[in-house]
Structures are given as C-alpha cells and as structure tokens.
Design a protein that fits this description.
With about 180 residues, the protein is mostly helical. It has helices spanning about 5-15, 20-25, 30-50, 55-60, 60-80, 80-90, 95-120, 130-145, 155-170. The longest helix has 24 residues, at about 30-50.
Length: about 180
C-alpha cells in the first residue's frame, strides 16, 4: 500500500535508481496520483462505449446497465493490476484534486444513467451515487473473491451477479 512503500523500495522493484523516479516525480504522492489517473482514464475509456448507447433499445436503462457491467468485467479481466490498483487507492487521502475530479468524471455517465432510471421509475428513488456504491461493492467483492480462488469468474457467474445487482437497485414492482 501507499504508506508501506518507500520510493527506494519502489525503485528497487522497478529496477531503477531512486533518483530516476525523482527525476520524473516530486515524490510518492505525485507518482501514485499519476498512476491512479492513468488507470482511471483506462477504466473510463473502457466504460465509454457502454454508457453512450447508439440506439434507443441500447439506451434503455436495463440494457445500458448490463453493458456497463460487462465493460467493468472486461476491464477487470484485461487489466487486473490496474483494477486492483484503483480499488486499493481510490479512497486514499493522498489523492489530489485532479484524481478526485477524474473519479467523478468517470462516474458521471453511470450516475446519469441511474438518474435517468430514477426519473423513468426503473431504478430505486435514491441518489445515483447511493446506487453506484451498492453495485460497486458487489462488483469489487466478486473480483476479490475470484482473485482469492473462491470461485471462477465465468460468464455465467458474472451474468448472475449482474442480475442480482440490477435487482438490488431496480424500482419495486407496483403493488
């Protein structure tokens, strides 16, 4: 983690001298923020197509949610180290204003999807970020559990967890 790693340790692991790192970064905070923004931009790019539907059927909140979930799965599978890095650091008090702004920018299309779902009566009447944390916690838990070997991250498991998350945030059926 951030507090347990010193620049000399990072340099040794990277196979460079500490001075090499300091020639590019002012210190560990700057380095972590740059790595965080790089990984967060990659996640944002991975989610962009899922959150920008190209036709009316794809724009339906349920379909858009499923595509966003699939994009998250694809990102976590393709870039497991970037995903783990983001999860490890996204609550860090050392993240600067630019990193926090990028976090909100990446979440904005998802928040807009959930806000639209709320206006349409499709999702629960909660603030979008409350729905995001509900789903995000389950997603991160799924990825961590597979990393620990509790189960395999199959397409079937991903689809079932996605459906469970949708059930958790969808509006209740009218009585």
């Amino acid at each position: 983690g951030f507090h347990g790693a010193a620049i000399p340790d990072i340099a040794e692991r990277a196979g460079v001298a500490p001075e090499t790192i300091y020639s590019h970064f002012d210190g560990k905070v700057t380095l972590v923020n740059e790595l965080y923004r790089r990984a967060k931009r990659a996640l944002g790019e991975a989610l962009a197509a899922a959150t920008a539907p190209d036709d009316e059927a794809a724009a339906a909140p349920r379909a858009q949610f499923a595509r966003t979930w699939a994009a998250l799965v694809d990102f976590a599978r393709a870039q497991p180290r970037a995903f783990a890095f983001l999860e490890l650091h996204h609550h860090g008090d050392y993240l600067d204003a630019d990193s926090r702004a990028l976090e909100l920018a990446v979440l904005a299309p998802i928040a807009a999807l959930l806000e639209r779902g709320r206006r349409l009566g499709v999702t629960k009447d909660l603030p979008p970020h409350a729905l995001i944390v509900t789903v995000w916690g389950a997603f991160v838990g799924m990825i961590k559990a597979t990393r620990l070997g509790y189960f395999e991250l199959t397409d079937e498991v991903c689809a079932q967890v996605e459906a469970t998350c949708w059930d958790a945030i969808r509006a209740p059926a009218p009585a």
